[in-house]
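PROTOCOL LOG
Step 1. Enter all chains and additional molecules of the complex.
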Amino acid sequence: EAQVTQNPRYLITVTGKKLTVTCSQNMNHEYMSWYRQDPGLGLRQIYYSMNVEVTDKGDVPEGYKVSRKEKRNFPLILESPSPNQTSLYFCASSSISRGLAGGSNEQFFGPGTRLTVL
Amino acid sequence: AQSVTQPDIHITVSEGASLELRCNYSYGATPYLFWYVQSPGQGLQLLLKYFSGDTLVQGIKGFEAEFKRSQSSFNLRKPSVHWSDAAEYFCAVGRRALTFGSGTRLQVQP
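Step 2. Run joint prediction.
Step 3. Record the structure below.
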């Protein structure tokens, strides 16, 4: 079954304790992305990756890191979490449209990770 | 910078009535435009997308959207709403970096 998986689904942690949220897709997609969803703000993109070893900042990258060492995996790292990073996080993946200005096609979303930082 | 505005935070319609959800965008070139739906406690599912070509786009579940470049709009429509359409709807714009609107929550009255 084609899917995007995230782990953990729920996480409660304390300020300053490093954590990693994993994301994996089995669709051989080039594009992967992380979003956070907060009430009234919709989804905001944190980082995205067009392919292995290629990552770019989205709208809200501060306080987050990512890596893309393998095509299927795109972990989100919070080196020193703070309470304002309490949120619902979604990972997504897609193929890339061809051409000079190729971009993300339909994105497939994971089930979400609800993070609480105390 | 690209941006998306969904002016209606919350809309209530009666089952069987028609629906239009508004989306206005700002983008420097020809945009990729998307509509996603999110049911409570769920992830997002693509309803439809516009990349180029015919400005009237058909999607899943009977939804359609019309791209109007002159108005920078990409409104979502459905001729007859079903109770199962109650959800939150997000418009998005972008090619590589994607920007979502803040969403419109749809409530359907019996």
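Step 4. Note key features.
Chain A is about 0% helix and 50% strand.
The mean pLDDT of chain A is 93.
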